[in-house]
Amino acid sequence: MSDVQLPAGRGAAGVAPAARRRTPQPTGWWGAVLFLCAEVTLFGTMIGSYFYLDFDSHHWPPAGVPMPEILKVSVSTGVVVLMSIPMWRAAKAAQAGRRRETALLIFFAMFWQAAYLGFQIYLWRLDYLQFHPQGSAYGSIYFTLLTTDHAHVLLGILADASILMFILLKGLPRYQRIGVRGLAFYWHVVNVLIICVYLTLLSPRL
Amino acid sequence: MATVITPAGQRHVERLEKIWAPRAGVLGWLMTTDHKRIGIMYFFTALAFFGAGGVEAEIIRTQLMTPNNHLIGPQAYDEVFTMHGITMIFLFVIPMTTGAFGNYLLPLMIGARDMAFPRMNALSYWVYLASGLFMYYSLANGHAPNAGWFDYVPLAERAFDPGNNIDFYGYGLIFNGISSTMASINFIVTIFKMRAPGMSLNRMPLFCYAFLATSLALLFALPSLTVACIFLELDRELGFHFYDPHFGGDPLLWQNLFWIFGHPEVYIIILPAFAIATAIIPTFSHRRMVAFPLVALAEILVAFLGFGVWVHHMLTVGFATIVYVYFTAASLIITIPSAIQIFSWIATIVSGKPQFKTPLLFICGFIVYFIIGGLSGITLAAIPFDQQVHDSYYVVAHFHFVIFGAAVFPILGGMYFWFPKVTGKMYRERWGQVSFWLTALGTMVTFMPMHIVGIIGMPRRNWTYPSGLGWAGYNLSETIGAYILLAGLLTIFANLAWSLWRGEPAGNDPWGGDTLEWSTTSPPPVYNYPVIPTVSSPYPMWDTADRERDNRRLERGEGLMELGHQTPSSTVQDAELEEVLEMPSSSIWPLLTAASLTAVFASLVLTHYWIAAGFVVVLGCTLIGWHWESLSRHGVMAYEQEAHA
Which burial class, exposed, middle or buried, applies to B536 when counting CB atoms under 10 A from its CB (0-12, 13-18, 19+)? Predict the structure, then answer.
């Protein structure tokens, strides 16, 4: 039903060519972007709180708490950040309606994202054996920031799994294609946030 | 000119009626995704919470009526004033403005048939209702929050407040924030993407600009409150140390996080009031708004600048003077966009042909009280003065003029203004005017003496006070004023209730309004408009040629979108038709999702963490069911075929 015509106003005629050059984004895409704006603000607030407490303290981390580990965290972070590439390709494949390729790319990314999360939980436990969130404000913000980041990743993996299930069961209707685009965008943002959290927590070593 | 349905158009209307027919009975309301029904549910829920908050206000004023009064004890007083603040801000003003007015009116004003995400809209409502009941359950079982609406630590820490009163606050506000975040996303996308063809950004009503600004402020302000509450609950429940200075934490972290949210919150409260004012003033002044682009810009600017002024709530905590100077300057800058709007409203009224019906009277009251509240706000931005009157009744006077005088008056005016549209009935004008004068008098008598009693030293939040300090007369006046105010409010609701029953038929457009909602029937049909309107100015109802063309299009069967629950989606800037969306009709998943979320928060407050985790899994299942419904929807095929048609 495209029988709704634009009124022939001066403004509409003038801007029409420019508007045609822009790629229109569906409502679902806008919803995903705004949801991520809220999430980024939430992480930004937590990161801001980390530095607020840092600037307030004489010793950061406090005496007796080891400096954060760099090598293992950097390698695992690098792996998960690289998963933005298959997610980007999956969004392209979904856009083109290539169901099998989309599913495989999401599965590939999900495997490495899950591996990253598993390894991070292992590192979290190693940290916990050395200091506790109840020991100091440093421990409180360190573990809270890290755990929130991991929860973010877990949410993404669950979203991967559910979209994968829907693709396998229901194919790639337009609703799903928008969903895959939203998911890819989610992972790009998560990866940027992972880098920000990683740099924040490593800041005492930098 | 309203839509006139001719016999030729009747066939199309009947088809739309059949397609959009809502599910009958209680289940229809529980599963509804219709923005108007959701708006009505928001309205009555917010009204109920307003009643509860009003009772709390009367208890406070009765307790303070005379010195050494013992109507209630100090602990009950703490709970009552805390719940009064929480209720009025989180459970009444915001849900009433964005939830009720925004939900009902915004899609109508932009010529859409629903919000961008109808099921998420329903979920926002159910989560709001559940979070309100969650917090009020604490009052019923004697453990209501009791550290004030801004809940400062260390008072709110476990060591000083060992019950679970504060946990209801912390979890309750996180819970409530989920609803507000979803609502803000929905409003932004609706405003960006659902406008009728031709309603480019420069032709969008000022009402919608104010809601856009409010929604953006909500979206970016709420995470700060959420983080503050998460830290608080981690401190209280798991022994973390965010706010404990003995372990490297800092109580001022709470104050910063709270007010980074709290000051934009003031504009989140006041901007919808501006929205209502900008809808009522042109209609009753019979002219276009003076300086329309400047007002639109000012609305956005107010929301933006509101993020840079939070420290003016903390002028006594001991930050460096340079910090205070910056925040004072930033606070003063906000007077510029505020003044632009005030001058524009006044200029529009003065240069038009004002007809002082009840809605416009309430807006005039709003302008007067906003100026009084704004001027006392400027005095509070002066550092030495603020340090003198901080935590005194002067501050209470200031924010009640802003929040009650400036935010609630337009809500009351808006109730009268859109009552004919929502119900199809006219209210009783004479009683409307009586209710205005009673409410205005009550407001002045209640809150004006608070300035004086604050300056002469009465601190806020004290449950009683000794005699002989010169405060008794002022407090007695304030209490008398509170009961006059109550009489005014009861007159309003009695008038509207009576008119709902016995009011005269209103017709489509009793006021000669300027925005699109007046073009459809009163009350509007489920599908809002039989033909999707086209727009060529910010005052579409005054563009009679456009409305006549809509009538002709209905006769010809153009622009009906009658293949399902369809509504147009348009481009962000120019509102060119982009695609036709198939909207969900009704769904049980929003209610089930809200119920699961309620179970999660109830388990958390009871510290049953594993049960909470179990309900998180249930929550995940409801979300899968939600998306399964989307994919299984009959309309998916139609959606596929018609997108980009």
Answer: buried
Nearest CA in chain A to B579: A2
pLDDT in tens, B416-472: 999 999 999 999 999 999 999 999 999 999 999 999 999 999 999 999 999 999 999
Tokens 């009871």 belong to: B606
Give Cα B250 to chain centroid, integer Å: 32
What is the C-alpha separation between B630 and B624, in angstroms, rounded?
10
The residues in A 100-129 lying below 8 A from B, measured between CB atoms, are none
Residue B259 vs residues B256, B311, B428, B459, B525: alpha-carbon distances, Å: 5, 7, 42, 21, 42
Provide DSSP, B476-517: HHHHHHHHHHHHHHHHHHHHHHHHHHHPPB--S-SS--SSGG
Question: CB of A95 within 8 Å of any CB in chain B?
Answer: no
Could you give phi then psi for residue A122, rounded to 5 degrees?
-60, -45
Domains in chain A with CATH codes? 35-205 (1.20.120.80)
Distance CA B266, CA B200 (A): 29
**Token pair of B399, please?**
């924010």
Three-state DSSP class for residue B290: coil
Select from A11, A52, A173 the Cβ nearest to the Cβ of B636: A173
**In chain B, which residues have their Cβ closer than 8 Å to the Cβ of A5?**
197, 534
Find the helix packing angle between B74-86 and B165-193, rounded to 10°: 10
Q: How many contacts (CB atoms, under 8 Å) link A and B? A: 177
Chain-chain contact of A134 with B231 (C-beta, under 8 angstroms) = no
Host H or E run for residue B567: strand B566-570
> Can you tell me the distance from the alpha carbon of B521 to that of B422, in angstroms, rounded to the nearest whole number?
9
ipTM confidence score? 0.91
User: In this complex, do A15 and B573 lie within 8 Å of one another by their Cβ atoms?
Assistant: yes
Note the pTM of the prediction, 2 decimals.
Answer: 0.93
Strands B566-570 and B577-582: antiparallel
ω before B154 within 30° of 0 (cis)? yes
